[in-house]
Every structure is written in C-alpha cells, then in structure tokens.
Amino acid sequence: MQYYSLRHQAPSVDFRAATIAGQAPDGGLYFPESIPRFSAELLASLKTLPQAELALRVMQPYVGDTIPQAELARICAETVDFPFPVVPVTDQIAALELFHGPTLAFKDVGARFMSRCLGYFSRQQTRKVTVLVATSGDTGGAVANGFLGVEGVDVVILYPSGKVSPVQERQLTALGQNITALEVQGDFDDCQQLVKQAFTDAAVTSHLTLTSANSINVARWLPQQLYYLYAWQQWPHPEPPVVAVPSGNFGNLCAGLLAHASGLPVRHFIAACNANDAVASYLRSGSFAARPAVATLSNAMDVGNPSNFTRMLELFAHDHATISGLISGATVSDETTRATIQRVYQRHGYLLDPHGAVALHALEEYLQQQPQQHGLFLETAHPVKFPEVVEPLVGRTIELPEAVHALMRQPKRSTPLAPRYEELREHLLSR
Ligand SMILES: *Cc1c(COP(=O)(O)O)cnc(C)c1O
C-alpha cells in the first residue's frame, strides 16, 4: 500500500515512511491510495473471528510488506488485548465501551499500535525518533503509556494548561523516562498549531527525526476502524446500527467511515459535537469554516479546526450530497450534556462520561425520527476521568481503578511553555 499527501506536493510513500514521517513534507495528511475491500469470506466469518486475528486481517493490507507477518501478528495481539463490550443502555440504544484499555480512553488502541510499529521501524534506524504530539486530553496519556520505555523513541507532549482533567494530566506528566510533557499556556488549537509548525521547520526536522502521534499519523488513525468491526461482532439486531461518534479531531469517525467504505454494514453515522461544531455545521450547510476552539465539558473534543476533516472529504470525493446522506451532524451544549448524564444514570443506571453523553444525546435525537432503528454510541472514556463533572450529577463517587490510584500518587513533571513557536523551537533544538 502506498500513501499520498492530500496536498499533492510530496511523493507517495509506504506505510513505514508514512508512520515515521507522521505528516507529509508538504504539510498534508497521508491517505491510502486504495481502500481495501473486506472479502465476503471475512464478512461472513466476522462474528466468530478472535479480536487479534481480525485486527491482523484488517491491518495487513495497510501495512503491506513493511512489517513481517509474524511481527505484525504480535503487534496486533498486544494492541487489542482488552475487551470492547457492547452494553445495552435502553431498548433502542447500546454503548460501545472503548475505555477498557490502560489509560481508560479509546486512544489506547491507536497509540499502542503506532508505538509498536514505530518501535519495530526504529530498530532499523540509527537515529532516535522523536514523537511530537499535541493533546486535548486523552491522546497524551495513551501515547505516553504506549511509548513508555520503547527503545529508540523519545516522546514530547504539548498539552493546554488547566484544560485537562487531573487524571488526564497525571497520565501524561507522571511517567518520566523517555516522556516529556510541555504545559502550554494556551488551548488545544495552540498546541496543535505549534506542532504543525515544528514539522515544517527545516532546522528542527534536520536536527531530530520527528514524527507525530496524533490521528494525523496513519498508524494511529487506521487501527481505530477495528472498533466498528468489534461492535458489529456483538451487534444483536439484523439491521445494521446507526453509529454516533463523539468527535473532536475526527480521526475516530473517519476510521469508521473507512471501515464502512471497505464493506462494513452501518446504517448511518452521526458526527456528535460539542460547541466546537465546524464539521456538524458543514454537514448541515455545505460550507466549512474553522473557528477558535471553545472550552467545554467534553474537553477532548474541543477542536476548532479538525485535522481529519480533509480525510473525510477525500473519502467522498468532496461531494457534500454523498457525505451528508451518510452522516448527520449534531451539536450538543454543556447543559444538555449534564442533563443527559443525570437522566441516563437515574433512568437506566448507566454512568456516562461527558464525551459519551454528547454522542448518546445526538443518537437519541436522531432515533426519535427513526423509531424502527437501533443505535450504538461510542463511549470513548471512563467516567472516572471526569469526576468533577460526573460525580455531582449522579450523586455518588466513582471508584478510581487501582492502576490510576498509583499514578495519582506520583509527582507531576511538566515544563511550562508560552504558546509561541520560538519557545518550542528552542526546546526541540536543544534536545
Ligand atoms: C480524542 C477523544 C475524542 C475525539 O476523538 P477524535 O478522533 O479526535 O474525533 C472523543 N472522546 C474522547 C474521550 C477522546 O479522548
């Protein structure tokens, strides 16, 4: 498989080069030259395939011959060694729980897959690889956890000061070793902008072999399509589901669209957004305008200019009519998010996190018009990551899993950074 740049000003490369580079040298995102079709045999045997084997069969065409089969099988097995349960919430709606990995959010799968691929590739490199990543909350922890102690790889994480939850902050600042956390006095878009600028700075890219671990990186983005296959494995209804995806940078939704393009049955997608709804507005109106991010309760979705939007357009050849036929956009306020967490706990005993609540509400609204259909929403984080929001609404404390307890006792280690590129540049050039 070759990957081309969506800006078309850089040569196509294989999976290895795309993973190491993160972003194409012209600043574009890499995109696969063809979309593999799931074979009829794969789709027929889907319900009985073990998770790891399904992961291998789906990822193989994207990886090509850049990783030997046995090595890729090991990487896949390590990546998906925890469950992805579909849990009924109402008669019509189920949660696909993606928070059973080590950092309690869905980004573990992409981060684990990417770290292991990069670990394999860096064994053939003489120079260290530096992963430079901006996080709105959960990416940082997943990337730090996935890369901790990986030989030949250093990780530099930029996160917006005061805009991530205490558990999230600890997950990316407490590990140490090859992980450095830069605490930016700004918002996520500032962090993302700084990272993008570093990738186009020749002085930096000749000093360090830089790569990104945001869903910009194909090795982070592509394995996320597995969630939708695991959901289908457990889906109890004959009709395919309506799937609501709580979205920020749109990597997760875009991976679902890719699985659908490969042949996975999905009835309809819902792009569930908080107040940062540039893509939802595009779906409604046909015109797109990036805007500055605003802070909300679902902080991992506070993205004003989502990177993967260009991939979404590419998948549909930029045709708004086709895109909006398959995907609806929804905007959910903080007030509705709170009310949804409270109501769903009281009526159904299900504990939502703010991101899942946005998706569940968007799905409920859609299904009101489609009472015969059934839906899934992606519950992307464990509610314990957002206790200050969830606990007062449900009137109880949420137990911290033991692994998180231990982490919370570790000291926070971060370096403050003004949201100016010169500061980041200086930091990187001195490494
Ligand atoms: C990152 C994140 C999202 C948004 O996912 P994208 O792929 O960026 O759209 C949603 N929920 C949680 C909990 C996240 O960490």
Task: State the CATH topology.
Answer: Rossmann fold
**So what's the oligomer here?**
single chain
CATH architecture classification name: 3-Layer(aba) Sandwich
* Overall mean pLDDT: 95
Instruction: Output the strand order for the largest sheet.
Output: 4-5-13-10-11-12
Discrete helix count: 20
Record field, number of beta strands = 14
CATH level-1 class: Alpha Beta
Main beta sheet, described? 6 strands, mixed
Radius of gyration: 20 Å
Strand content: 15-25%
Tell me the count of domains: 1
Share of helix, binned:
40-55%
Distance between the termini: 34 Å
Query: pLDDT under 50 segments (min length 5)?
Result: none
Small-molecule binders:
pyridoxal-5'-phosphate
Task: Write up what this structure looks like.
With 431 residues, the chain is of the alpha/beta class. It has one domain: Rossmann fold (3-Layer(aba) Sandwich). The chain is built from 20 helices and 14 strands. Strands 4-5-13-10-11-12 form a 6-stranded mixed beta sheet, with helices on both faces. The protein has a 5-stranded parallel beta sheet with strand order 9-6-7-8-14. Strands 2-1-3 form a 3-stranded antiparallel beta sheet. Strand 10, helix 12 (251-261) and strand 11 form a beta-alpha-beta unit. Helix 16 (334-348) crosses helix 17 (354-369) and helix 16 crosses helix 18 (387-394). The longest helix has 16 residues, at 107-122. The protein is globular. The model has no long low-confidence stretch (mean pLDDT 95). The protein binds pyridoxal-5'-phosphate. The site of pyridoxal-5'-phosphate has 18 residues, from helix 12.
